[in-house]
């Protein structure tokens, strides 16, 4: 499988989502540990259904997260509900490859995605949703500059326990990083 380096970071790059990764994506979206943090935990996703999902991802602002070393696919991130007139969107991310979690790859991928959102799509506001029990993700988002803007109380029920859904956002003026290609343009 060959990937395309659309947005390049220090240790990884974002590539268009490919049909060739169908089997790996299907295994990730059927892994309960991975999907508890997403809205897919209750779903049973066949390869045919995942193929449809991948085709929809290819139509939007979605990327595969690929490590530079070895061109290993480790996850996915993207922007949903993008409104170019109101300059807003919602982001989502997951690291499907369990062995690659906790190494800062999610934060790096989000940085690239936000640079794309703010500097190429010219969005002003990017929000996300995270479940209250996912403290690791919350710390990552806060470290990157997201701030909590609200909660939907006890709207997620897992194992008979209720959890909040936390809404967070970042404005373009709060984001300072840029893509190297764009920095080179501003230096001219």
From TrEMBL:
Highest taxon above the source species: Bacteria
Protein name (record):
GCN5-related N-acetyltransferase
GO molecular function terms noted in the UniProt entry: acyltransferase activity, transferring groups other than amino-acyl groups
- Provenance organism: Sediminispirochaeta smaragdinae (strain DSM 11293 / JCM 15392 / SEBR 4228)
Q: InterPro entries, per this entry?
A: Acyl_CoA_acyltransferase, GNAT_dom
Q: Which residues form the N-acetyltransferase domain?
A: 12-173
Record's Pfam families? Acetyltransf_3
């Amino acid at each position: 499988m060959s990937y395309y380096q659309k947005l390049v970071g220090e240790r990884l790059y974002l590539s268009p989502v490919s049909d060739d990764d169908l089997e790996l994506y299907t295994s990730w979206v059927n892994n309960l540990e991975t999907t508890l943090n997403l809205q897919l935990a209750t779903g049973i996703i066949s390869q045919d259904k995942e193929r449809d999902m991948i085709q929809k991802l290819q139509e939007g602002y979605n990327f595969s997260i690929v490590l530079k070393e070895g061109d290993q696919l480790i996850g996915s991130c993207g922007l949903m509900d993008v409104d170019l007139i109101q300059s807003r969107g919602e982001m989502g991310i997951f690291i499907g490859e369990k062995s690659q979690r906790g190494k800062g790859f999610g934060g790096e991928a989000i940085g690239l995605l936000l640079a794309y959102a703010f500097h190429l799509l010219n969005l002003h506001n990017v929000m996300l949703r995270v479940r209250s029990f996912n403290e690791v993700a919350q710390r990552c988002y806060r470290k990157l500059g997201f701030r909590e803007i609200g909660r939907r109380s006890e709207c997620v029920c897992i194992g008979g326990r209720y959890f909040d859904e936390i809404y967070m956002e970042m404005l373009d003026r709060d984001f300072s990083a840029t893509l190297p290609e764009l920095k080179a343009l501003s230096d001219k």
